[in-house]
Amino acid sequence: MIPLTWYLILSGILFSIGAVGVLIKRNAIVIFMCIELMLNAVNLAFITFSRQLNSMDGQIFVFFIMTVAAAEAAVGLAIIIAIYRNKATVNVDDINLMKW
Amino acid sequence: MLESLLFLIMGSITVVCALCVVFQKNPIYSAIFLIQTMVSLAVLYVLLHAQFIAAIQVMIYAGAIMVLFIFVIMLLNLSKADEEGERDNLFFQKPSAIILGFILVVMIGAVTLKTVSQGVKGEYTPETISQIGNTQLVGKMLFTKYVFPFEIASILLFAAIIGAIILAKKRIIED
């Protein structure tokens, strides 16, 4: 059997790639996709721990994370559409109305 | 042996596709690489004996959520000025972000390798799971131990549907 540490390290790498993506991208939709990538990394860690501890609870948590991710994607993309309709851009540098 | 080979292949595909998501210029390519990342993660879930989660990963993430993303990317029809690259308002942003990402990887790796994981082992070994069936176990837990969060999730999805419609609809009456 593969050591489960490998899965955890893979999950860490994916999470870091997602975090770097959030930091360097300007397109709001791509930033959103990087957030989905981070959610997926967390899901992988949950499943790994569920396998390691011989428990089903981790898989149930992944189920709920997927629910929240679907809700978040729907609302977030609606917000992006509304912003695009108002400002004709999705570049996060131009969306600075609430910046002090 | 075959299992570790499969893990290495799928793990490297996952990491390469995740890097492509971040470093592609065109958002539609990013979305397609993200779909590939999710499908290869589903293979890893099968390796971890979570078949039901692997199936809904393909159906919900790679199917539903990513189709929503691609719809929005195509609806918005982003102009050339919105593409990445030509503007870099923050000084030294990309290199410092990549350095911080490396530090994050090293920290997570160190914590993972140093930590001795100990916990109370549950009763669901891979043998019992394959005897009863993964889907049946997940369904049983959803409707017994986790029935309250399950109902909350349905309310959350309902609120998200209404919120998305209200946010994205066109204002007809101006006031």
Q: Any chance you could write out the topology, listing elements then pairs?
A:
The complex is a heterodimer of chains A (100) and B (175).
Chain A: H1 4-24, H2 28-52, H3 57-87
Helix pairs in contact in A: 1-2, 2-3
Chain B: H1 2-23, H2 27-47, H3 51-76, H4 93-114, H5 126-132, H6 134-143, H7 147-168
Structure description:
The complex is a heterodimer of chains A (about 100) and B (about 180). Chain A is an all-alpha fold. In chain A, about 75% of the residues lie in helices and about 0% in strands. Chain A contains three helices and no strands. Chain A has helices spanning about 5-25, 30-50, 55-85. In chain A, helix 1 (about 5-25) packs antiparallel against helix 2 (about 30-50) and helix 2 (about 30-50) runs antiparallel to helix 3 (about 55-85). Chain A is elongated, with a radius of gyration of 17 Å. Chain B is mainly α. Chain B is built from seven helices and no strands. Chain B has helices at about 1-25, 25-45, 50-75, 95-115, 125-130, 135-145, 145-170. In chain B, helix 2 runs antiparallel to helix 3. The longest helix of chain B has 26 residues, at about 50-75. The radius of gyration of chain B is 21 Å and the shape is globular. The N and C termini of chain B lie far apart (about 70 Å). The chains are: A mainly alpha (about 100), B mainly alpha (about 180). The interface between A and B is large, with 71 and 87 residues.
What's a quick, concise take on this entry?
The complex is a heterodimer of chains A (100) and B (175). Chain A has helices spanning 4-24, 28-52, 57-87.
Would you report the number of β strands of chain A? 0
Most extensive contact = A-B, 71 and 87 residues
Question: Helix- and strand-based class of chain B?
Answer: mainly alpha
Taking all Cα atoms into account, the compactness measure Rg of chain B is 21 Å
Please provide the ordered H/E string of secondary-structure elements of chain A. Answer: HHH
- Characterize the biggest β-sheet of chain B: none
| SSE topology string of chain B | HHHHHHH
* Largest sheet geometry of chain A: none
Helix content of chain B: over 70%
Averaged pLDDT of chain A: 90
Structural class of chain A: mainly alpha
Form type of chain A: elongated
What is the averaged pLDDT score of chain B?
Answer: 87
Number of helices of chain A: 3
Our estimate of the beta-strand percent of chain A is under 5%
Record field, number of beta strands of chain B: 0
Number of helices of chain B: 7
- Termini gap of chain A: 53 Å
Helix content of chain A: over 70%
Low-pLDDT runs of 5+ residues of chain A are none
Give the C-alpha Rg of chain A. Answer: 17 Å
